[in-house]
Write a structure and sequence with these properties.
- This protein is 36% helix and 16% strand.
- It is of the alpha/beta class and 312 residues long.
Length: 312
């Protein structure tokens, strides 16, 4: 049996009781490393979640703060909770590569195997195309391997903490990092549609955890960029840049549009601040991960809730 287990948000304790029971029963435990660092801040900010988790649970922070070392700290916390000696990390390449994912599925034919994903097992999947976690489940079903999905919280439902009603959200979008040569604005029409319907727009912000460096790929070598998490500030800056590029007479939003910046959703130190785009762009939201909500038409209850988060 293959158990695809959502770990929720915040830290290793976000897993449900059902998920924890399943993991403890499994002979092998894999973790999807590409999204693993969503549970941790990856910068050197003293209030980062990794620093707090490690201090509170008596683990020593690594002196060299590499991606691999940070991940080892988080895995150590998981091992302590699950009672497992080893949590084997499966990177996105392991899942996307047919040979490597087949290894997981072969083991699942004769034993219980857990595959852990931060948030909801499918909560981070893009709406189009064959995605990592869905692809693994599809392959399992084709091989007649039993699959059990155990869900948990994700940003898609935890964002309700900002005070806006979940049924009043429209299509969620992902804001990608702009480069000098590529500034994609394909998400703009979804914002237009949501605004026209009076719906809120959840903006998921881009993450580059293990992106290949193009100049090395050209030489036939594999080298990876350092991890980058988009901030609320960068997202707003790029959204406003899209307006300049498009030059529309009646844009879907502007600097005065009400938005909500959210950081470290589901953690003990989550931060939620509402205000105009022009003011939120200069606010320090602290360590990642971040997301942004473009507010649509609001009810009286939503307006009352937003007052608690309004920027001073």
């Amino acid at each position: 049996m293959l158990y695809v287990v959502g770990l929720g948000l915040g830290d290793e304790r976000g897993v449900t009781v059902r998920g924890l029971d399943a993991v403890r029963r499994c002979a092998r435990v894999y973790m999807e490393a590409h999204t693993a660092l969503l549970a941790l801040a990856v910068d050197d900010h003293p209030s980062s979640r990794l620093a707090k988790l490690v201090r509170s649970r008596s683990f020593a922070l690594p002196t060299r703060r590499s991606l691999k070392q940070r991940l080892r700290c988080f895995i150590a916390l998981q091992e302590k909770l699950y009672g497992k000696e080893v949590v084997i990390v499966a990177g996105r390449e392991m899942v996307d590569g047919e040979d490597r994912s087949d290894r997981i599925l072969r083991e699942a034919t004769g034993a219980d195997v857990a595959f852990l994903v931060i948030g909801h097992p499918f909560g981070s999947d893009e709406p189009s195309g064959k995605t990592t976690h869905t692809d693994l489940v599809l392959r399992a079903k084709k091989l007649r391997v039993g699959v059990k999905v155990i869900d948990s919280a994700s940003v898609l439902n935890a964002v309700g903490a900002c005070g806006l009603q979940l049924h009043r959200y429209g299509e969620a979008i992902t804001v990608p990092f702009f480069t000098e040569t590529c500034k994609r604005d394909h998400f703009y029409q979804a914002i237009v549609n949501n605004r026209w319907l009076g719906l809120h727009t959840l903006c998921l912000l881009d993450i580059h955890v293990k992106g290949p460096v193009s100049e090395y790929l050209c030489r036939g070598n594999k080298a990876y960029e350092p991890p980058r998490f988009m901030t609320v500030n960068t997202a707003i800056s790029q959204l406003l840049e899209v307006l300049e590029m498009r030059g529309e007479p009646e844009p879907a939003y502007d600097e005065d549009s009400l938005c909500i910046g959210v950081a470290r959703l589901g953690s003990d130190d989550e931060k939620i601040v509402a205000g105009p785009m022009g003011k939120l762009i200069d606010l320090d939201f602290g360590p990642p991960p971040h997301c942004l909500v473009i507010v649509g038409e609001t009810t009286l209850v939503e307006e009352e809730m937003l007052e608690f988060y309004m920027i001073k």
